[in-house]
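Before going further, learn to read the protein records used in this course. The integers have meaning only within a learned vocabulary of local backbone shapes. The record below shows the convention in full.
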Amino acid sequence: MFSPIQFVFIAAIVLYLLDSIWEVGSIFSPNKFSKRLADYFLLTGLSVHCAFLIIISLQSGTLPISTLFESSTFYLSLIVLLSVIFKFLYRMQSLTPFVMPIVTGFSIAAVTLVKNDLTLAADLQSFWLYAT
């Protein structure tokens, strides 16, 4: 059902889910849920997600925005990256408890979009895609 490469993205989804639980849990009971552990989940999930995008782009030979699955995972990684920037650079701690459950939900939806293969359709394997 899943290709071996997708298990890397599923690992990122699990880390995003754990971060969502810890971020929301730290709002309601800050003594039980550590913000530091939530930060580790967030940064590790983003690292795994970026590794997945690099693997996908090396495998397909194009930017990871050519199929619906690739573009949705790429834009989700940008949302997480912006969330990390706002959290650590601008000290907006209240943004990630609201963003990460949405990212987790859309990541699960992106996994259901993909079929068994992650290759491009034959019509899309042309020079204009490589030129952009």
